[in-house]
Amino acid sequence: MTSPARALWDAPPASPPPPRRVWRDWVLVAVIPPLALLEALLRTDVPSRWLWAILLIALVPTLLWRRIRPFTMLAIAFGVGTVISLAAGGDPQLFTTAYFLILVYAVFRWGSGRAMLGGGALVLGGILLSLVYSAPTVTDVIGGLAVVVTTSTLGVAFRWRSGARARELDRMRLLEREQLARDLHDTVAHHVSAIAIQAQAGTVVAQGDPAAAVDVLRVIEGEASRTLDELRSMVRVLRRTDAAERAPTPGFDDLRRLARSDAAGPTVDVQVDGDVDSLPPPVSAAVFRLAQEAVTNARRHARAATRVDVHVRVDGAGVRLDVRDDGESVASAVPGYGLTGMAERADLLGGTCEAGPAPGGGWAVTAVLPRAGWAT
Fold first, then answer.
1. Is the pLDDT of residue 294 over 70?
2. Whole-prediction pTM value?
3. CA distance to 47, 92, 94, 197, 349, per residue, from 87 (Å)
4. How far apart are CA 343 and CA 353, in angstroms?
5. DSSP string computed for 112-137
């Protein structure tokens, strides 16, 4: 078996895995049986039309399991259909049989490599049998092959697109984790440097002034406690080992610099309430990153926006960030990589980040970082 063929044979099912069922499945199950009965009633020229109508109705439940068992459902539908065709002496001529193409699509969209190869062989075998036991025209054969190939190609195309998007989302999550880890590195490095300096000073004064040495130990204890707190708050963050550009950890001073008023875009107003000095540096950096991404999105994508309001509130429960623009109302938007990265950053600190249309118009981003999330 050649390498491409072996790779296809060993290919796993589609990733991310599909939902077990969605509302469209129930709509199909409810709509197809009446259509089959109506077609059998109206098309009196079709041979064995009532037999085919009953068969099609009996096979409709295969649509409910087509995502989790795509090859099995296709084999059941095509196997039973082929047996009845041989027994009835002809292929089904009801248009309702077109829903079998949904099963073909499901095999190539969600099935494993073995399922795709098996499904293709099954469909091809059915076409060859129809050539043996009936006399279809060349046009019918070419048309049938074109429909099957198009359906299969669509399944593969959507499968590839979904997988590519999932991989890009994973990459964005890793980038967010890396950025958080860099911020943590800068903070911990600062504390450890202070501990080292104090320890050196304590060594010098210990012999001549024991009381001063005790004061130095207290400073070291405080710095060590803060360092452990920072490490504990970011324990889930993974950091890659490749070299990275170093920059000062951003904080609330950088957040205030987001405020701007010019003719190139909407005015950005920043308001900060509460004791910002009580926040650990990684949390301050996270708030800045979230606000920066939200403001950037508003300036780039908010239609007819003239103002962006950034409001940060710090209290005993944690931090709340609200970013809202006054642009035109939109019904909804597909979450992009930026919004996904914001949600991932908030989740790493035990918080949440939500974005969507704001009441009264515009777009709103709300992030909540509870103290329990980074203090545990």
1. yes
2. 0.54
3. 12, 12, 17, 91, 65
4. 5
5. -HHHHHHHHHHHHHHHHHHHHHS---
